[in-house]
Amino acid sequence: MQAPHGASRIPPLVDPGPALSADQVRRWSRHLLLPQLGEIAQRRLRASRVCVVGAGGLGAPVLLYLAAAGVGRLGVVDADDVELSNLQRQILHGVADVGAPKVASARSRVAEIDPAVDVVTHHLRLTADNVDLLAQYDLVVDGTDNFETRYLVNDACVRWGLPEVWGSVYRFDAQVATFWGAPPAGVPAVQLRDLFPQPPAPGEVPSCDAAGVLGALCGQVGSLMATEAVKLITGVGDPLLGRVLLIDALRARWTEVPLRGGAHGETDVSGAARAGAGAAHATDAAAPSVGEITAPELAGLLADGSVTVVDVREPMEREIASLPGALPLPMGELVRDPAAVPADRPVVLMCHHGVRSVQAALHLVAHGRTGVRHLVGGIDAWSLTVDPSVPRY
């Protein structure tokens, strides 16, 4: 369901703040010229409280753009200090900040943009004991780089009824979505566990430290996340609720897959009223079910030819390592044409580490396919457990 151009199916998250001063009118004049925003939306931004978890590759552009957009209070959560290797993508920080806490660097940089922004620094690592600090905000933006914190943040947002803008970057690929366990009436609830029910096993998916990441892609994704935050705060446009945006930077392609919520029963929103996020709403559709298969299990099925394997990686990846007999169908092509996947046998989706394959499988199930599974751990798992002659990359 898409809203008409400029309209939104989501009401504004924040009430308008005080009237703008003459200097503020000049500062945000380009926003005020937009019919979809205008003065009232700008006053909503100034009254909003947004917590950005992570002041790294994604959090950096989010903080810069939200500060420039006029968000009144920015919370910054990060336990790390600035390192030289961060400067390739974490544009909040400079050479002079190396060795300093990232939250301190973020505070200084935001003050250069707008000293009137109230920056609240949380120099800590989120745990189950302190994650409820998020409840003091209207909106959470998750720019973290580890699965433990991502699930911790999302579970807390569901518990408190907070909307969450989420992004992930890996090498040249990225994903962006908005989750909300307690959206307004008429909007299905959706959360991270509807996309990935459980985090991968430790070490199953390499971090950016081990695998690398394109710095400029972090800027693209962070800008999108900031845009989603502005839309939610002001009630403009159609947020990425129920949709996951996939970005393939190497091929310059953006696609999206649908995401349905409801696999987790009634959302616990006992704190929703305190968080100002509205009442709980039951989803109108059950979450799609996607099965898993391990590499040794797949090897047994391939031996008797009872399954079709679809490789959703890009051609250059298949040149490095491939699975004999797998049907090559890059993710973008599968999303555009699900019927390209043969329907005569059960299907197993595979990719590099098992991330894109889950999304591809969800997309097929959403289009009515049954008997769909994905290869846990991707072709790297195949190399580790079945055929060590297949290169890892």
TrEMBL record:
Signal peptide: none
Superkingdom assignment: Bacteria
Entry keyword Transmembrane: no
Record Pfam families: Rhodanese (PF00581), ThiF (PF00899)
Residues in Rhodanese domain copies: 303-391
Gene3D superfamilies referenced in this protein's UniProt entry, alphabetically: NAD(P)-binding Rossmann-like Domain, Rhodanese-like domain
InterPro entries: Rhodanese-like_dom, Rhodanese-like_dom_sf, ThiF/MoeB/HesA, ThiF_NAD_FAD-bd, Ubiquitin-activating_enz
SMART domains: RHOD
MF terms in GO: nucleotidyltransferase activity
Keywords, sorted A to Z: Nucleotidyltransferase, Transferase
The protein's name: ThiF family adenylyltransferase
Organism, scientific name: Actinotalea lenta
